[in-house]
Amino acid sequence: MSHINFDVAMLRSFIIGMDLGSFAKAAERVGRSTSAVSAQIRKLEEQTGTPLFLKAGRGLALTEAGEVFLRYARRLVELNDEALAATRGTDLQGWVRLGLQEDFGETLLPAVLGRFARAHPKVRIEARVARNTDLLARLDAGELDLALVWDDSDLSAQARRVTGRCVEVAKPAVQWIASDALQWTAERGEPLPLVLFDGPCTICGMATAALDRAGIAWRVALTSPSLAGLWAATAAGLGVTMRTHYGLPQGLRPLDADACGLPRLPALSLVLVRASKASSAPVEQLASIMFDAVRGYVSPLAIAA
């Protein structure tokens, strides 16, 4: 039985094309002609023996097989890059202080830290999971080297003023989140029960402002200082909360805003912020791994579906 070996360069072009939404843009990124990248994609379809793309529309839409293949392609390219980094980075030493949102504490953090530790065993990492205001305050105080935060006009301005080094990693849609235990419906005419963070929250403020503009009454059903508290209350059916697909646990689902009579919520940028003095090789390596991990993240709910 003959074995098919996928070419990592082809897989990389495929991944970049899907991330950028265009293989022409991918060609620019990888330093090849558009025709060469197109030939790579055709070769991948030949090797898989099944169509990877839907034919309808101009955009890049994947078939079910294409979605599966994309997930494996990311893993293969990641392992290739990890092997190279581990080979070259055995002597890398230092200390990195990382901050990130609760949304990523149970999903991305173990994978990112595990991958980094395998590649750079002599680098020590101190990780802190917290909310935007805390993370940015710690960047300001010089207590973090790198942080993954939600973009907000005021907070981003503060981050740029402190560090001058922000890069957008992703821009996921903010969604209304509920469980099947929720009893509220728009037809009842009751205020929408909300499960919110206590204190300032970019996403909560965005959602309540959208409800006010739409003239939809709402009430606070529960507040919590932690994301785990929001998930627990929402799972119990106490109300609706608002979040992106990152870290969404089993038992909770995004609501169809139109069907529920709720306003659609805008996308929110996720930015990776480096402290102004954090330009060491360990920080740059961890930033690269964080960027790849967030861009390649697929919700467990999407995989289960």
Describe it for me?
The structure is a single chain. With 305 residues, the protein is α/β, with parallel strands linked by helices. 45% of the residues lie in helices and 17% in strands. It has twelve helices and ten strands.
Give a quick set of tags describing it:
alpha/beta, disordered C terminus, 12 helices, about 300 residues, globular, 5-stranded mixed β-sheet, 3-stranded antiparallel β-sheet
What can be said about this structure in brief?
With 305 residues, the protein is an alpha/beta fold. It has helices at 8-20, 23-30, 34-48, 64-88, 108-119, 132-140, 153-162, 202-214, 227-235, 257-260, 281-295, 300-304; strands at 94-100, 123-129, 146-150, 166-170, 175-178, 192-197, 218-224, 241-243, 253-254, 270-274. It contains 12 helices and 10 strands.
Run of helices and strands: HHHHEHEHEHEEEHEHEEHEHH
Shape: globular
The overall average pLDDT, rounded, is 84
DSSP strand content: 15-25%
SS content category: alpha/beta
- Give the low-pLDDT segments: 300-305
> How many angstroms separate the termini?
32 Å
* Major beta sheet, strand line-up: 2-1-3-10-4
As a whole number of angstroms, the C-alpha radius of gyration is 21 Å
State the helicity in percent bands: 40-55%
The total count of strands amounts to 10
